[in-house]
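Re: that chain you flagged

S.,

Sorry for the slow reply, it's been a week of failed gels. I finally had a moment to sit down with the sequence you sent. For the record, here it is as I used it:
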Amino acid sequence: MAMTDIATAAIAPDDLTEEEAAAELERLATAIAYHDARYHQEDAPEISDADYDALRQRNGAIEARFPHLVRTDSPSQNVGAAPSAGFAKVRHAVPMLSLANCFSREDVEGFLSTIRNFLSELKRDESAALELVAEPKIDGLSCSLLYRGGKLVRAATRGDGQEGEDVTENVRTIADIPHTLAGDAPEVLEVRGEVYMTRSDFFALNERQTAAGQKPFANPRNAAAGSLRQLDPAITKSRPLRFFGYAWGETSEPLGETQWEARQKLKDFGFTLNEPARLVSTLDDIMAYHDELLDERAGLPFDIDGIVYKVNRRDWQQRLGFVSRAPRWATAHKFPPEQAKTLLEKIDIQVGRTGSLTPVAHLAPINVGGVMVSRATLHNEDEIARKDIRVGDLVTVQRAGDVIPQVVKAEAPPHGTRGEPYQFPQKCPVCGSDTVRPEGEAIRRCTGGLTCEAQAVERLKHFVSRDAFDIEGLGAKQIEAFYNDETLPIRSPADIFTLAARDEANGLMKLANKMGWGKKSAENLFAAIEERRRIGFERLVFGLGIRQIGQATAKLLARHYGTLETLSTAMDAAQDRESEAYAELLSIDQIGAGVADDLLAFFAEEHNRKTLAALEAQLVEIIPLAAPTTTASPVYGKTVVFTGTLETMTRPEAKAQAEALGAKVAGSVSKKTDYVVVGADAGSKAAKAQELGVTVLNEEEWKTLVNGTA
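Prediction finished late last night. Pasting the structure tokens below so you have them in one place:
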């Protein structure tokens, strides 16, 4: 695993300070985006599913404790990675989302509690049954099959959840997939499931690969993904691919009132189901099924990495809806992590975009559950001291859990004595500046700022990353090379957009003449840069790399302020913490004082304003964030605050409903609030609404309004 892919965990999520949490979420977002691309676009993952899931698990735990820190590039806001350029693109009529994860009995209990707290009838009656479908989670490649009039007309990969790759001709070669549906199928039916390869077929394929002098596949999932995404369907046909159908997207009529009924319908249409599946209704039922399947796992003919639980009632699924990238009504229960022991050869310090110093363990390479691990996080200086980790130790490495891979514990090597206790550096290893550790925080930081090359380079890498400006051909390695190039340097975002003009005047030192480049690749890069002179406002805000401003927060700011000029003016006014502008900033849902302070600090720094002005001068258009499509809603574009205890729906359900109708849900009342919806024991927010003359609605009045009969 590359150094830049190792997230630095501080301590347990519950013990993180707000600043530590923001730094941790930043690192996790970068690492997960990298692995998304390796997994979904290149079919060449560098970590296992368990590793990847644990990264997301920690990210979710931190976001749950600090919801105002959710970033726009947060893994909780995205699914997969953009489709590759080798196939035509397919827009999913219904997004193909991923699942949240559970790792323990307590996690599953929390999942069930969330459902009960969301649905008012279950919240009122704790004895009411909550039935779920439990089924094995296949380790394969997600695929969508669209049937019209019972005929297969299109197949697509998941891609980034919104847009995938058209693999229709390849899918037609898979024997498990019917070209014509049996029985009385809906006129339009999109079947979703998993393309996979059995273990025996995988081993036989690898024997053929080796005999032909070709590289064997790492595991059945990689083999299935690589086989399905061949540009030549004949190659796909030669591979032993199979398909499990277990879900649906677009459909012209319901498949049934329950998930279980719909599964049986899919079987009737001709699909193979992922078995063994079971209906469960209590936590004990769920855990019994989990333990049975875990015991049977090795004997199954295909790989599974956990279990999926889905609320059985379809009407409850619809009410529960979705949050970010995942449904509220389903979750994946992942199997436990694996560990191994190896020698710690040295400890390096990695300097991040915000100056955070991350200790990274260099290990004697060790196979942990089928993945070679050579580097792991050491969290921070306190964790090194607490675990007494020393160079030369025999360390236990875990590939799942808090952050992965991680060093769990250290002990003396089998032969020899332990080295000296590790001393954390007091100077930045990159620029030599002093390092500081604010009181009460676990993260030590370099004070060099933009004079520190590591921070400057990491900021530029962030600027061109997939969820920011996403400039094709200008990735992390290219940024490092351009930063150190004396003839054609990139030292600030604006430099990227002057690159072609400077190259034109460079004579023999043109980019096309440099090592690793050519005329065509240079032209492609310049063209890609030109395309990004028009950029979405939310991408621009995210690309600035402001601490704690992730993708989600950037979207909130872009939607609230509309334009860069409005945002800049508002941030100038909000420097006065007693101003209306500051109160307005804090009224934006999920933005707290910590996020506001970091945002205001960025705009207060003259260097940042000059950098932003230089960048803006190079852009042709900053495109406003696209508004929700529910413009006919009576609360579209309105700002709503919910307060007090609601009777017929829970607060989360009310908030989800409002957002689905295009409303902005705020956490506090201000002059710009349109409606305050009050329940029992409403308190100070209701009083402030009356003071400001904001419209106050009770629950029934709110329901009348959103139903269009007000």
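What I noticed first: The chain has five domains: 3-78+337-411, 132-328, 471-531, 536-623, 639-706.

Talk soon,
D.
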